[in-house]
Model the fold of this input.
Amino acid sequence: MDDSNATPWDRLARARLTPRQASETLNSHRLRVEDDIAALQRALSYAKELRNASTPFLTLPDEVILEVLLALRDLYYPSSTSSDFSSTVIDPTWDVCTTLCRRIRSIALSSPLLFTRLSTRVSTWSFIDRCMDLSGSLDLHLEITEALTVHEYPAVHQSLTRHGHRIADVSLKVTRQTIFRFTPMLTYMANARQFALSCEGPGPGTLFSLALAQPWLPNLLTLTMIGIHIDFRPSIADNLLELRLQDVVLHEQGEEHSLVSILQRVTRLRRLALVNVNCQRIAAGDQPPQSDIFLPNSLCYLEYASSTHFNLLHRLHPSPSVHVYIIHTTVPTDSKRETRSLIQVLQAWLGNENRPTTVEVGIRYNTAALEARISYWKSQESRVLGRTPDFELVRYVDEDFHIRDLLLGITHGLRSNSGTLYADVADITFNVEWEYPLLCCMNDWLECISPLNALRALRFTGPRTLIAPPHLSLWPEPNVRPLWMPARLFAEDREPMGDVRVLLIWLTERSARGLALPKLSVPAHMAVALDEMEVETSSETTDWRRLVTNLHVDYRA
Done:
């Protein structure tokens, strides 16, 4: 380097960092240079700290910086044990941000709340033990998902002995070999309110019974069991509010393990989730028919998910106060095979005096298939207020699913179901992807939707793809029917859910029967397509706007 451009730091480095002198040995020269390197690294670290202290972020108050650190922490740890245990997290540990400067480190170390969510997925147990000490007296949320070494179990036992009474939320992912190592440690978590136990087995349907001594988790409110079944002691069942069973086989023989026995004990249960749960009999030979399973009187929400049959769901005795959420996780072809079974379930929960008044069909594309979500409300007011549907069905469909396949039990062939289930339906909403051919089968619309005498409103909507509102303009001729210029509507092409001719003919046929639709809501581009259709077939149809009492065109859809 030219001496004229050398800085004081350059001249200091040249004076300090010199080659080995004649009087120095190789070892002494190496030690001297290593000391110089360490000193320069400390100086460089201090310089970076001064640079970071000048960033706009550090001009914020300590309270705001703490909120940012809390948000960063929640990116690495789940908010509760009810979330997916296998969710992706970032490595290394989130607390690397505390090394940016002394101020951030001081804020982090003086805030015990930052060290209350602990997981073996991103931290070693020695670091978790240190975080337990830094968390003060706050409640802890612990997740153990990685297999611990034999040498770590004594440290885990010691940590839980000191801090187990502060654990409020715990999830354990164990195997058949490691479950017995954690059994004695559960007694230290007497104050836990949420507990999730996941056992890795050969697959769905694994039965694994774990007997625990009383008392055990007397304050437990939420319990999740995946691939494992534990004995329900009175200390667990007395206060339990939420129960989730997944990939579990419950035997009918043996009162301690049957689903009937479990539901009889949880008298305060409000939420129940059954995911791939099967009931089997131990003894072979002729068996009496399986009886109905009565739900607790306190139950408000029932979730049922299965990829095969609905045998267990058929045995659950319907309750008018329970909101039902069903997920059929199978391919569209297999889903169609269970249509009649689903109709029976729908009729059992919504038939007679529980008939719905509002229905919404939502269809969205995902990476695997089309996901259809059909929601039923018994009261129109509940739908307007955004309350949870009284009955909701989620299944995978394809473009061959028509109205009769989506609105189960509405077909003309099932006149008994149609007469009882959809007799009071006054509002139907189709919240569908524009590319889905909803308007494709004329017979379905005429045979399924037309007989609904109570229908007062029909709405079509879908996902909005444009933030700015569309600019619409009418054709300049004053003596023609209202027709917008499609070129002014959207930059991209938008399909009107199939062939709008189906909707036009359906409105005409319904009006001819004296059942003119009181209210119709359509997106702007569908109204454009209907206007164009009338221009093309002006001699065959009447003005479609006159077929509806109240027309609403959604310019934002």
